[in-house]
Amino acid sequence: MLIVMHHSATEEQVRCVAQAVAALGLTAQPIPGGQRIAIGVLGNRGYVDDATIRDLPGVMEIIHVSKPYKLVSRDFHPAPTVVRVGSVNLGDGFPPVVMAGPCSIESQEQILEAARQVKEAGAHILRGGAFKPRTGPHTFQGLGAQGLEFLHVAAREVGLPAVTEVMRIEQLEMACRHVDMLQIGARNMQNFDLLKEIGRLRFPVLLKRGLSATVEEFLSAAEYIVAEGNDQVVLCERGIRTFETATRNTLDLSVIPLVQSLSHLPIIVDPSHATGRRFLVPVMARAALVAGANGLMVEVHPAPEKALCDGAQSLTGEGFCRLMHELRFLQECLAGMASSVAGPSA
Amino acid sequence: MLIVMHHSATEEQVRCVAQAVAALGLTAQPIPGGQRIAIGVLGNRGYVDDATIRDLPGVMEIIHVSKPYKLVSRDFHPAPTVVRVGSVNLGDGFPPVVMAGPCSIESQEQILEAARQVKEAGAHILRGGAFKPRTGPHTFQGLGAQGLEFLHVAAREVGLPAVTEVMRIEQLEMACRHVDMLQIGARNMQNFDLLKEIGRLRFPVLLKRGLSATVEEFLSAAEYIVAEGNDQVVLCERGIRTFETATRNTLDLSVIPLVQSLSHLPIIVDPSHATGRRFLVPVMARAALVAGANGLMVEVHPAPEKALCDGAQSLTGEGFCRLMHELRFLQECLAGMASSVAGPSA
Amino acid sequence: MLIVMHHSATEEQVRCVAQAVAALGLTAQPIPGGQRIAIGVLGNRGYVDDATIRDLPGVMEIIHVSKPYKLVSRDFHPAPTVVRVGSVNLGDGFPPVVMAGPCSIESQEQILEAARQVKEAGAHILRGGAFKPRTGPHTFQGLGAQGLEFLHVAAREVGLPAVTEVMRIEQLEMACRHVDMLQIGARNMQNFDLLKEIGRLRFPVLLKRGLSATVEEFLSAAEYIVAEGNDQVVLCERGIRTFETATRNTLDLSVIPLVQSLSHLPIIVDPSHATGRRFLVPVMARAALVAGANGLMVEVHPAPEKALCDGAQSLTGEGFCRLMHELRFLQECLAGMASSVAGPSA
Amino acid sequence: MLIVMHHSATEEQVRCVAQAVAALGLTAQPIPGGQRIAIGVLGNRGYVDDATIRDLPGVMEIIHVSKPYKLVSRDFHPAPTVVRVGSVNLGDGFPPVVMAGPCSIESQEQILEAARQVKEAGAHILRGGAFKPRTGPHTFQGLGAQGLEFLHVAAREVGLPAVTEVMRIEQLEMACRHVDMLQIGARNMQNFDLLKEIGRLRFPVLLKRGLSATVEEFLSAAEYIVAEGNDQVVLCERGIRTFETATRNTLDLSVIPLVQSLSHLPIIVDPSHATGRRFLVPVMARAALVAGANGLMVEVHPAPEKALCDGAQSLTGEGFCRLMHELRFLQECLAGMASSVAGPSA
């Protein structure tokens, strides 16, 4: 921690700050500058609460150097974490993992058909929502427990592991019996009690970035899970909220190499929620792969609109099949590129 | 709902869209314009899911007119809601209600001293946190159940109703036995299961705006509670997340008159979390009052830093006392102003 | 400047960084911590360009302590600046200054009528736009030079100083002959050439905060003007761009006390552009006054819509008159409050 | 334009709104819904100013359907625009164009060496800044006219066209004599006078997206240039300002396919300014290419830090050379992928 004093801070004020630092059991080291004095705080083994110092007279600014996370940081744990979902390995050194399926499970037939389509196209994990967080209470909230059953049956039928979102602690036990990976949605990224309970489970978990979560908060949320003993955490970038409303959210792909430099946890991308518009999904999925994502989560519907009118442009089973073909193509390119240039630049 | 077609949309495409609208049981009314055709959708009694229409050929944009909330809207329910917390009335027609106390309950002595200070200064409700949502897991997480006991004792001792934050469903029953109002924090504003459970309780609830929640989402979250039967909801603006980092959050005071025009629920302001800096709290509290807030939530500590060094500038009991004096002064001015000009402008 | 090294940084890496610091003519002072080493940089007299250090091996983060502004900072120049516009004094120690008038000058009659209305209501400075920045080129762009003439005539007629926006350097000379204060709009806050030229003029200037400008950037823009010799700068908060679209911008009132703590320049508020909705203007104007603003800028139209239909709620001359009455009322309250409590809290 | 009335709007209020619409020379068509009435406005040939309608009694919301741009829209001009810079073609149907060089021109030697490096690596256009927009006035502001000379000599020497940023109208003539393309920086995206003057030049121009510009504002800024007769406009995404501070800006890659669907103008990406961190540049450059960018703008320095210490990770000439190799590799992959799957998905 660095305490920056006002230009006009008095010696007495500096002395008081040093005393306050000492009262926390830490050491204050003054760093005189050309224009002002700063006070380095030494001896802390983590984040320091600055409440007793922040408003002391003469204090201009307090700068924190330690991060609120440690277990998930690559700085302390350089080796990459590989998460195992069913028989699928997700993480550095393994091919990108694609999770696909409908946003909501609507019926046994629907999820079965979706499962067959994504399996045939080459997806590795089946996704489907039984509990749906919706902005307003007057819209479809998911099939609940019955949806979990339908998902379980469909996943077993096609031989894929399954992932589904959980929203409350009471759902955990049932969900664990029906799927192979739990998802924490963006709105629950800082539902700390849910994070802690899942941390005690030692079960693979997909943690989505909150709509307005900084990278530091994102990694700190993962730290909650890992701190309880569960290191099987996959991060998921799904777009952040910005002033731009032309897309549902703003997909922040630079977070992939950034998080990979800061943390040993794998990170995947959900281009469906990020863009909110079907025609943008495949292109952003391809870009995410090239940006180094360890996987993708893509919404695939068995196209109900086909009945209404021909030619609708959507990520149908067929569209997803084409995307998977492209992703495999790109993946081979990237492998070829890496060997041809002896490692990508930077 | 309004469906805007591309400039170059064909008649066949318009026909297909109209068909898709009809398949939803609604009526499509074409509105020919100078440059393009739009299609009005009639007959819906609420928000329409546009999934089957959004990507039809020729569709440029879909504009939703209906809001995802209705029960909390002033449009449908013009009369203001008054929320009763203990013997305190909060809402239009009643004087502003001030909730004050420490962020965290640290001990029986600390909350008792805080309770006496805020009571003496004229606060109406005692606040104190027993369950604390913290960005990282390595910091103080609150005293939990014991904190609730301490709060209960302190509130009874000074004769004030109490409010405390709940973070998970299991805490509701215990919390209801110890306090008079439940608080849902910003991070849980879209914890829809928690909202629903509290909706079933018919217990006063303070709902804080999420860090990046639009007014529409804020009101929709309140709709979740009211839809279950509990209309005793007080909204709370506590700053939103923006690009500006000089203050902890950006306090959005214009949301007060805006929400009051859209909804019949009362709304209060928390200047402490919004600014994150003590010297900004009193001035923003005064501004919030003048902006029409139905109340305030202010953090007051019994000043532990006093022991460390003299003269620290903070919202101590003394500082809060001065603020309450100013707020009463302002309130009288506002009453005088209203009668002198026969209602404030606009 | 503080250079934070990686947990695993080697001694050799620390040595290289120290060398790079020395190459800039500065002194590196290592600050060993419990988990990592940090390097304080001493001897700089202002902002240091970190380009040669940022990417050295072992460097985790660079933290700047010096601000990019100095002349406008209260830290170095504690005495408040008073800006004189015609015979009006604007700044600490003087009553709030209200600038009012139409967004655009449309005709001699219109600006004359507006001038009479705002003068009669008690405004201190007449505003009116001759050069209009518009999002698209197909909308009214202002009357230009003729508008300046109209404004000049109207201001002289009613005996008020005038302020108008300038958008390009060539307009400066003509504008200075017709008005008493130049305005730099939000979109030009970082039009550095315009800032420099105005800095050479020694003419009062109103600098609006950019849509996404941090307080640091806002003050740095003012620094451009003051650095050229012109300290007659008034800052203006006019709302920032956030994710919220229910209001045109988000009015950031906490910036008033914040800027007043950081800078000696006066700061006013424009609630018209900030909210974009007339019914919100008066309430936010009152809140701005209580938040300590040194003045206000309010749009007043001689109400063309009156002809169309009765009862429209807008800031007509009459509405502005009522607002001025309220502002005077509030101002007296604030004076009374200050003397009653011996200075407002904090 | 669609005018949404309050649930409780009276017939008289609807009639008044219809009258106000008629007064604008337009036609009002009521659209009765289940819960409220809406009024479609017909007959406008572009954006309608809603000032006289917005605040009429009973009006709840006004929704604009027409965009403030038309000339740059693909809706009206489906054929892609190809911009010719020297002998380089930039746009759909041509290979991605890479602009590279130093942020600032520091000396004749520096820009010459940079020019040779980027030419040898395969860049198509040389970039270099002579006029530099800097946040504060106390930092290097560029070499100005002399810098233009140096850039001109270097570009001629290596046989590349050159691009440089202009900040004020007076610089245009001189810049046009020295370079082949003008750049408008993010801070000047809404410097409408500069846009108009460049529009009159018929000279290739690179228009960077403003820090907080929506896609609609971005395209409207381009409309200013095209409306004056100059259609040689290349758009450039360079990151937007969000709450996230871990990267300098947030690179919004989804804007590439989005803009390509809305406009016929080419769009390129600047990963250097977007990320602000060298190790992120190559990976985001590769992702941008795959997202469909028509080109890239990359900062390349002849590595002054080499002298200070070995091993610095930066986009040196060598690093850029490797990146160009990768980009060519990827480009061939994309061509192969397109032919293998008969067009990329969506």
TrEMBL record, chains A, B, C, D:
Residues 87-318 form the DAHP synthetase I/KDSA domain. Keywords: Transferase. Gene3D superfamilies: Aldolase class I (3.20.20.70), Phospho-2-dehydro-3-deoxyheptonate aldolase, domain 1 (3.30.70.1140). Residues 1-67 form the DAHP synthase ferredoxin-like domain. It holds the Pfam family DAHP_snth_FXD. The keyword Ribonucleoprotein does not apply. This is 3-deoxy-7-phosphoheptulonate synthase.
